[in-house]
Amino acid sequence: MLPLGQKPGLLQPESKGDSGSSDLRQRQAEVAAEEARPRAAGEHDAAAGNRPAFRDRAPVGLTEDAGDLRLAFDGKPWGRVAGVDADRNRRRQGRNHALNQERWRPYAERGWTSKVQLEAMDIEGIDVAVVYPSRGLFALTVPDLEPRLAAAIARAYNDWLYEFCQENPERLIGAGMISPFNIDDAISEARRCVERLGFRAIFLRANIVNGHNWHDPYYNPLWSALEELDVPLGFHESNTSAGRQVGDQFGYDFMLRHTFSHPFEQMLAVGSFCGGGVLERHPKLRVAFLEGNCGWLPFLLWRLDEHWEMFGDQWAPELKNPPSQYFKRQCYASVEADEEPVKYAVDFVGNDRLVFSTDFPHVDTKYPKAVERFLQLPIGVEDKRRILWHNCAAYYGIAEI
Questions:
Q1: Is residue 401 a part of any domain in this protein?
Q2: Which residues, other chains included, contact 251 with Cβ-Cβ below 8 Å and sequence gap of 6+?
Q3: Pairing status of strand 287-290 against strand 60-61
Q4: Quick one: which of 46, 103, 242, 334 has the fewest CB in 10 Å?
Q5: Are 161 and 134 in contact (CB under 8 A)?
Q6: Are the CB atoms for 361 and 107 separated by under 8 Å?
């Protein structure tokens, strides 16, 4: 239990390992029989006589050191800029790398299991975690990935995540992966995640990989489906992508790539949803922009409002309200444990639009003292109470305890 009786509801761990259970296999068989859809590597399609599908095309995870998040296929990087991985030896230097190798080695040796995850939550005082990926963030960032393969990868990840959460499903809650390469596949998998696997969120990378901006009509059926399912959408970025990303201009410089890629890609997504009309068309859709900080919200929303006032009649005639009003009505952003500028975000958007993330076990987490550091931030007690539990519960549709 946290000080002040607060309970955080957002923790975003690395997704590692593999597992299986009879319950999971039964769910797979039911879905295969009903939908006759392609299965991912390591799975079997019951409707096709137990023939493995996509086994020879599946990316695999690399584990050269603790916290290795890379995927590869046929000896080549998957979902990441090739040069960034080639410069990995330089990233293996420096005090932060040494710190993380020492910090994560015991967890890596135990396979990053769900037991490890729960123990880390106990150390931080986390009661409930909604699980997002790390390595899995690179799975669907290959531009113009074949839709059937992309759908199979998403299904395989979600089946694994369901099993991961079964260690304690009251404390570990899944956020499902969906493919942006085919809307029917995305809708079908979102429905399966919610109705069959019990997940409480759907996630996407913020950067564009298929040529469609998030406010493109291409996505309207998906946003409508998420409204119908009453499940929120979470955007989670990373430091690189095989597709176009703002960090590309910095080449292999990890410091600069990491500085800009997370918040800037999230800012672009906020622009699409709040300024591009998505939330005007879909007033029941809940959207969060995660692990990209929140201190930029006042500037960005102010600038969007200013430009709507100047040019909205021509370029955004469907918007009935300033872009910032849509954010304040339907959106959330996450606060990092040491994010001092959160006070400006609270002043601008209020204390009910922010959620908490420990960022465990990424390179910039403050674990095992993330919560302790958060409680030192220069905001009020009620602000902290809402950010640590109430807002997360509202976003994910989790009943108050």
A1: no
A2: 83, 257
A3: unpaired
A4: 103
A5: no
A6: yes
